[in-house]
C-alpha cells in the first residue's frame, strides 16, 4: 500500500542567471491504487514537479515535503529516492552510449533489491517486458536509448516501470510524441501496472487523449506552479472543450 | 565545459588549403632541426621530456622483441638501406628521423599474400631502461587476413619509426598497446599504407608512460581502401599523451573513420589529439569522419583536441568531424541514479560505456578483457581520490 504525499512544495530551476522559482506550493495526496492526472499548459511547471521530486540536479526544492509511505524523499539522494520506491518515466529519456539495456536493467534491479536477480527468470522477465512494449528482444543488447526513436524511448520507460516495479510512479508526458498505436501499447503497460491495485501514480500530460485509455481517479489543472482546480475525469472533458485559457488568464490577472 | 564541432556536410564550404601542418618528409637528419616547442607540430608537446629522443649522437640500444610467429610469417633483420627502401614514407619529425637514421635494430615482418591467420600474431617489445630506437616494417601481402598485436612494455626512452604496408585486398587488424612503466618516454611515427580495396583497422591504446607522442599517418595505395582507426588512452597526473593523426585521402573512393577517446584525471594530466584529414583533388567519392572525445574525471587536467579538414575536391560522399571534452554528463548520471543505481556505480557504467565502443573493436577477447581491467583500475584510482576529498 503506497501513498505519495506532496505538501507545500516549492522548487527553483537553476539557470545560468541564478535560481528561478517554478513550483509555488504544490499540495497533493495520492492514495494507494489512485491515478492522478496532472494537466496544464506548456511552461506551467508540470515537468518541474516531476524532476524536483526525482531529484534532478537542475532543480532545487526550497521548501515543502514529499513523502512516500512516510519516508521523506527530499532528504534523500536520487538513487535513494528510487530505492524508497519512486519511479519517474521521463519525458526525455537520456542516452547512455556503450551501456546495454540488459546491463542497465540488471544493475538497476540489483541496486533496488539489494541482490542480483535470478538469472534464468530475469532474462525471461526482460524479454517479456520488452515484448509487452512491442520492443524486439534485440533491444536488450542495444545501448540505453541510443538510436531509439521517440516512441521507442517512451516504451522503454514503461518496460522499466514494469520490471523495476516501484511503489509510486510519475509519468512525465509519456504520451507526447506517440502515434496512436504506440499510445495504446504504452497505456496497456500503465494499466497493467495500475492493476496491481496498491500503487500511487501521477500522470503528467498536456493532452487528454491518453485519458481515453487510462482512467484517472482524479484530474488536476496545473497552472503557474501549483494546482488550481481538481475534479474527476469530467474536468478533462472540460479542458478538451475549452482549453487552458480560462486558467491562464486567471493566473495572469492574479499576478498583476 | 563541453565543446562540440559538427560538420555533417562540408561540401558547401570547400576551401583549398596547403597542408601546412605536415613538414616535408626526409631521411636527412639535417632537415629536422631539434625542436624548440614553438614549431606548429611541437607546440602542444613538453619538448623537455623528449629531449633525449632528439639526440642523434647518443648511444642507444633497441627494445627487446619477443614473438612466436605462425608458419608463413617471417621476421627478418634488415639494413638501414633496405628499411628506407621498404618504408611508406620518410620521417616527418626529429624523433622519427633519429629512429630512422640511428636505430639499433631494423626488422621486416612479412605476412604472405593470401595468408589467412585466425589467431592474433603477437609481438612484445620490452624496454630495459635507457635510450632505445627501432625501425620496423610490417608488410601484409595481397588478400591476406591477419590480426597483429604489438605490446610495448618496460621502461625506455624510445624513438620509433614504423611502416605498415597493407597490399591490395588484404585485411589487417592492428592493435598496439603502449603499456609502459611510469618513467617511459615514447615518441615516433607510424605510417600505414592501405592498398586497393584493403581494409585496415588500427587500435592504438596508450595506457602508461611519462610521455607518449605518436604521429600516426595513413594513406592509400589505390582506390577502394578502407581505414578504421580507433584509439583509447588514460592519462593520469603529470602524464602527457599525444596522438597526431593524419589521414591523407590521396586516392578516390577511399574511406576513413577515426575515433579516439580518452579519460584524464589528476593535476597535470595532459592529452593532445590532432586529427588532420586531407582530401586531395584526386580523391573523389571519399567518405571520412573523425572524432575525439575526452572525459575529464577530475579538476586540473587538460585536453587539447584539434580536428582539421583540408578539402581540395567538392566531389565527396561525406566528410565530418567532432570533438568533445567534458566532465561527467550530469543527465546520464541522473538517469541511471533515478533507477536506483548508486552514484559510484553510475559513474562506472558511464565510463565503461564511453570506452566500450572502442574496446569492442579490438576483436581479440583477451586484449579486450585487459582493457576493461584497465578501465576498472582507472575508476579505482578515481574513487580513491574522491574518497579522500
UniProtKB/TrEMBL annotation, chain A:
Q: Which Pfam families match?
A: ABC_tran
List, alphabetically, the PROSITE patterns matched.
ABC_TRANSPORTER_2
Q: Which UniProt keywords apply?
A: ATP-binding, Nucleotide-binding
Keyword match Metal-binding: no
* CDD domains the UniProt entry points to: ABC_FeS_Assembly
InterPro entries in the cross-refs:
AAA+_ATPase, ABC_transporter-like_ATP-bd, FeS-cluster_ATPase_SufC, P-loop_NTPase
What are the protein's GO molecular function terms? ATP binding; ATP hydrolysis activity
Domain ABC transporter span(s) in chain numbering? 4-249
Q: Which family does it belong to?
A: Belongs to the ABC transporter superfamily. Ycf16 family.
What protein am I looking at?
A: Fe-S cluster assembly ATPase SufC
Q: Give the source species.
A: Tessaracoccus rhinocerotis
Q: What is the lineage of its organism?
A: Bacteria, Bacillati, Actinomycetota, Actinomycetes, Propionibacteriales
Amino acid at each position: 500500500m503506497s501513498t505519495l504525499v506532496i505538501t507545500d512544495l516549492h522548487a527553483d530551476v537553476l539557470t545560468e542567471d541564478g535560481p528561478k522559482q517554478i513550483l509555488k506550493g504544490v499540495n497533493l495526496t495520492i492514495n494507494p491504487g489512485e491515478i492522478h492526472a496532472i494537466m496544464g499548459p506548456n511552461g506551467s511547471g508540470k515537468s518541474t514537479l516531476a524532476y524536483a521530486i526525482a531529484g534532478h540536479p537542475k532543480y532545487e526544492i526550497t521548501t515543502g515535503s514529499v513523502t512516500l509511505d512516510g519516508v521523506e524523499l527530499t532528504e534523500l539522494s536520487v538513487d535513494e529516492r528510487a530505492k524508497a520506491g519512486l519511479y519517474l518515466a521521463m519525458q526525455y529519456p537520456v542516452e547512455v552510449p556503450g551501456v546495454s539495456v540488459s546491463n542497465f536493467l540488471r544493475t538497476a534491479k540489483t541496486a533496488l533489491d539489494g541482490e542480483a536477480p535470478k538469472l534464468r527468470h530475469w532474462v525471461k522477465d526482460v524479454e517479456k517486458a520488452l515484448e509487452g512494449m512491442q520492443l524486439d528482444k534485440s533491444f536488450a543488447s542495444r545501448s540505453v536509448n541510443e538510436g531509439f526513436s521517440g516512441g521507442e524511448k517512451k516504451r522503454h520507460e514503461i518496460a522499466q516501470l514494469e520490471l523495476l516495479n516501484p511503489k509510486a510512479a510519475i509519468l512525465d508526458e509519456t504520451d507526447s510524441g506517440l502515434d496512436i498505436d504506440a499510445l495504446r501499447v504504452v497505456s496497456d503497460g500503465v494499466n497493467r501496472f495500475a492493476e496491481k491495485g496498491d500503487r500511487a501514480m501521477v500522470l503528467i500530460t498536456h493532452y487528454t487523449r491518453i485519458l481515453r485509455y487510462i482512467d484517472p481517479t482524479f484530474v488536476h489543472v496545473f497552472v503557474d506552479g501549483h494546482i488550481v482546480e481538481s475534479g474527476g475525469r469530467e474536468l478533462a472533458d472540460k479542458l478538451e472543450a475549452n482549453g487552458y485559457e480560462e486558467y491562464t488568464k486567471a493566473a495572469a490577472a492574479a499576478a498583476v | 565545459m563541453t565543446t562540440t564541432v559538427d560538420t555533417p556536410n562540408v561540401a558547401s564550404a570547400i576551401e583549398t588549403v596547403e597542408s601546412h601542418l605536415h613538414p616535408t618528409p626526409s631521411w636527412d637528419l639535417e632537415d629536422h632541426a631539434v625542436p624548440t616547442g614553438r614549431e606548429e607540430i611541437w607546440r602542444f608537446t613538453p619538448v623537455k621530456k623528449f629531449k633525449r629522443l632528439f639526440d642523434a649522437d647518443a648511444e642507444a640500444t633497441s627494445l627487446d622483441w619477443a614473438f612466436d610467429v605462425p608458419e608463413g610469417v617471417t621476421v627478418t633483420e634488415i639494413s638501414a638501406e633496405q628499411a628506407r627502401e621498404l618504408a611508406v614514407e620518410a620521417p616527418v619529425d626529429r624523433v622519427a628521423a633519429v629512429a630512422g637514421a640511428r636505430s639499433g635494430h631494423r626488422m621486416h615482418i612479412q605476412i604472405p599474400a593470401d595468408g589467412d591467420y585466425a589467431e592474433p600474431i603477437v609481438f612484445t617489445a620490452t624496454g630495459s631502461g635507457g635510450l632505445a630506437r627501432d625501425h620496423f616494417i610490417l608488410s601484409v601481402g595481397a588478400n591476406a587476413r591477419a590480426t597483429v598485436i604489438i605490446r610495448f612494455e618496460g621502461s625506455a626512452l624510445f624513438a620509433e619509426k614504423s611502416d605498415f604496408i597493407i597490399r591490395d585486398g588484404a585485411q589487417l587488424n592492428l592493435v598496439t598497446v603502449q603499456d609502459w612503466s611510469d618513467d617511459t618516454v615514447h615518441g615516433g611515427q607510424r605510417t600505414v599504407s592501405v592498398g586497393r580495396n584493403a581494409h585496415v583497422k588500427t587500435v592504438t591504446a596508450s595506457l602508461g608512460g611519462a610521455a607518449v607522442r605518436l604521429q600516426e599517418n595513413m594513406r592509400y595505395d589505390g582506390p577502394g581502401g578502407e581505414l578504421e582507426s580507433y584509439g583509447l588512452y588514460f592519462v593520469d597526473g603529470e602524464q602527457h599523451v599525444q596522438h597526431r593523426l593524419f589521414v591523407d585521402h590521396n586516392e578516390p573512393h577511399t574511406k576513413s573513420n577515426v575515433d579516439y577517446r580518452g579519460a584524464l584525471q589528476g593535476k597535470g594530466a595532459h592529452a593532445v589529439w590532432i586529427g588532420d584529414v586531407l582530401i586531395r583533388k584526386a580523391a573523389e567519392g571519399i567518405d571520412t569522419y573523425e572524432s575525439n572525445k575526452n572525459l575529464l574525471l577530475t579538476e586540473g587536467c587538460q585536453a587539447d583536441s584539434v580536428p582539421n579538414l583540408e578539402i581540395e575536391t567538392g566531389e565527396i560522399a561525406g566528410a565530418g568531424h567532432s570533438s568533445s571534452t567534458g566532465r561527467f554528463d550530469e543527465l546520464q548520471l541522473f538517469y541511471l541514479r533515478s533507477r536506483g543505481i548508486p552514484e559510484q556505480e553510475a559513474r562506472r557504467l558511464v565510463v565503461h560505456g564511453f570506452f566500450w565502443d572502442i574496446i569492442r573493436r579490438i576483436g581479440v577477447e583477451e586484449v579486450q578483457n585487459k582493457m576493461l581491467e584497465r578501465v576498472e583500475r582507472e575508476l579505482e584510482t578515481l574513487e580513491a581520490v574522491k574518497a579522500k576529498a
